[in-house]
Amino acid sequence: MLALTSAGGASAAPAPSGGNADPSVASVTVNAAGAADYWTPERMQSAVPGDTLAGKALERGNRSSPAVVEKGKPSSTKGTKGKPTIAQSEDPVSHIGKVFFTMGGANYVCSGNAVTSANGSTVATAGHCVNEGPGAYATNFVFVPAYDNGAAPYGKWTAKALYAPTQWVSSGDMTYDTGFAVVNPDSNGDLLTDVVGGSGTAFNQARGLTYTSYGYPQAAPFNGTSLWSCTGTASADPNNPQFGTQGIPCDMTGGSSGGPWFIGTDSDGVQNSINSYGYKGSAVMYGPYWGRVIQDTFTRAAKS
């Protein structure tokens, strides 16, 4: 058993949870003390986009052809530096936000989404925003819903447990790059989705659906201050078909990792994937197929 401890840290075994009942799920219990205070505006501003962690997972072997995560070539409306982008600027959405965490001594930022669950406290994000894949779990993990240009209208929600597929935690398999955080109630004792709402989830769906993805891209030409989206029809990854992932036209960059994919053309749809990776020189964002293993992971998190 490997114990992880730090300020706002974690302490548990990165092994399958629930014994034989859920062999595909790994989890860690989080000590949230100090995590909210840790994330000062300065630390939020300087956090490194979490796509670098997905890139490291790919470099560790992961049965893949070479990839650079979440790098795109701009191509259609105006980005923050005047360059054209496919991604569209969006007003804040109450249940979509930024995820901040520490891993390997560095501070990172991803995106996430509150989803409806039995515990009213579950956030969906990327596996690489929860665990190194393989390696350490995140510490100082907070979810900031409806983040907008430094504002946190619903506060910072600290994690009390993190969940990911064992296939991600043990080998960083991009097929399973999804994670879930269960957050603590706020200072009033209210649960996350009672405050900000939440999205339904769907699993084992048909391939080739139309999706709208959301996130907070930070690498140029974006700056991480606001929410963006992409809409398109999903198709298989031709470079690494063994991942079973699907991609949509999108040039959101690092920082959008873990942002939700909704079936349909807006944020009212059910969530069915997350922003996972892309290739340098390509304007396509790939997300994992949410099948049985990711469903099992969500179920474990949602009822904890």
Short note summarizing the structure:
The chain is an alpha+beta fold and 304 residues long.
Can you put this structure into words, describing what you see?
With 304 residues, this protein is of the alpha+beta class. The chain has 2 domains: 19-60 and 96-199 and 293-302, Beta Barrel (Thrombin, subunit H), CATH 2.40.10; 77-91 and 202-289, Trypsin-like serine proteases (Thrombin, subunit H), CATH 2.40.10.10. The protein has helices at 35-38, 41-46, 51-59, 166-171, 192-196, 292-302; strands spanning 25-29, 48-49, 77-78, 84-85, 88-90, 96-103, 106-115, 122-125, 139-145, 157-165, 179-183, 210-215, 227-233, 235-236, 246-249, 260-263, 271-274, 284-287. The strands form 4 sheets. The protein has a 6-stranded antiparallel barrel with strand order 6-7-8-11-10-9. Strands 5-13-12-16-17 form a 5-stranded antiparallel β-sheet, with no helix packed on it. Strands 14-15-18 form a 3-stranded antiparallel β-sheet, with no helix packed on it. Strand 7 (106-115) and strand 8 form a beta hairpin. The protein is globular and about 45 Å long. The two termini are 21 Å apart. The relative contact order is 0.21. Residues 1-20 and 68-81 have low confidence and may be disordered.
